[in-house]
Amino acid sequence: MKPDDRIRVMIVDDHAVVRSGYRRLLEQEEDIVVVAEAETAEAAYHRYREIAVDVCIIDIMMPGSSGIEAIRRIRAFDGNARILVFTMYSRAAIARQALAAGATAFLGKDSHPTEMLRAVRAVAAGEPYLNHSLAMELALPASNGIPADFDALSPREFEVCGMYLRGAKIDEIADALKISAKTVSNLLSLVRQKLNVETDIALIRKAAQAGLLDTQELSPGAGERPATND
Fold first, then answer.
1. What confidence tens digit (pLDDT) does each residue in 42-72 have?
2. CATH of domain 149-224
């Protein structure tokens, strides 16, 4: 295969050791080359604008803006962008948000390495890809006992909710997403209405029940903050 015919990949993950592992796995293949890396959603967006990429591999949960925001911005810049989400949070509610934001494929980090390679090649060919267990969960959401409430959130509401749950303050969320603090407060109010919760503790419990949050990730006191008032 000619070098110019290889699948050009960008890896977006906030952990350098994870990016290094992905790179080693991918570059063992003659038809794949890693051309860029980024550790934040903001950096991913700018790198995508600078360099030709066939497939973006993006984690969802990163400091600051999450992978959802990176997907949204990249797809706004390039409607044909091909994006593979590869994350430890492989639940249907997160997958739906990623796909709604414009992702082409979604894999959990517990997938076998060969499945990641299959997914990269499928996405490069313009084909969607989901592993079997997640596809079944998406097809049968009512059968798994996971609350479907989070499916009602828009991608932006989901983004703001995730950042808030991980300890980001309203001003920090506003700065990261380039929106006003008032907009963040309004979005959090909508989140609480849609999820039918009144306190941060209730919000955290619902997110943990849905498999969207590992409570060990929470910064000290995150669940003790009072609800936001508009």
1. 999 999 999 999 999 999 877 777 888 899 8
2. 1.10.10.10
